[in-house]
Amino acid sequence: MKAYYHLPGLFEFYDLYKVFLKLFREHREYFYDWCEIGSVYGAPKDCLWGGGRVGFGDESPENVAALMNEYKISSRLTFSNSLITKEHLSDKKCNFLCSLFEKKDSVQNGVIIYSDILLDYIKHNYPDFYFVSSTTKVITDFNEFKKELDREDYRFVVPDFRLNKEFDKLNSLSQIQKDKVEFLCNECCWFDCFDRKNCYENVSRKSLGEDVENHICVSPDASKGYRFSDAMNNPGFIGIDDIQTKFMPSGFSNFKIEGRSLGSAVILEFLLYYMTKPEFQLRVREEIYLDSMLDIF
What we know:
Blueprint: E1 3-8, H1 14-26, E2 35-42, H2 61-70, E3 74-79, H3 92-102, E4 110-113, H4 116-125, E5 130-133, H5 142-149, E6 156-157, H6 167-170, H7 175-178, E7 182-184, H8 196-207, H9 228-231, H10 240-247, E8 254-256, H11 264-275, H12 281-289
Parallel strand pairs: 1-2, 1-8, 2-3, 3-4, 4-5, 5-6, 7-8
């Protein structure tokens, strides 16, 4: 059994992946043999259908698609805007992205989605995608989560991170259901947050071009920003020991790494921790740091 990681920054960290994926292919011995890359997800800047985080990637979509095709890795367009209406469906940029990424050579691409209006539109007009139910739905009730798993529309469902350690309930799922679960591993959000859905809605409004103020985070530690060391202490954190000793033996194999709004140096730390053998972490770090074309920060 393999663990499949779904990595952040399809557009946002193109330069990092251009270097990292080459290392991953040419020096597979540097990396754990029990894991693979399941997909890379993200959205470019000024993406109307975008959600979750405001995309800032400015690499050309053609280059991004070519890189993922070269390494036979599934691309996922993050179209998780929760406020889509029918008038937004004609957006030229998002339709162009769909027409480009629907094409596949050897691997199927996907869409991370919230809106049923958008889901129906993409299914009808771009039928070769698979779909992922977005964690921005903030599904914290386990029975609602099971209903989402049973929807035929979705190949994967990302629950709210606060369901990550509900092992008694998770282990009661059928294997078919377990195969669709994609856990968000490294969330740093306050575990007791009561305002998470409003935070995501604020991002959706910004993606639609609305002039709204920034969402005010209710976490008592909001001023610290994202720190991987803090995420590791989050009750919902899933580390590599958890993956190998708890989740994989129970039949779960899909794990999402967050981080689209972070810098590439932080993303590299995720790639080192989750995928790279300790004895090779310095070597991978040096290979990437010494690449003169990459602005690691």
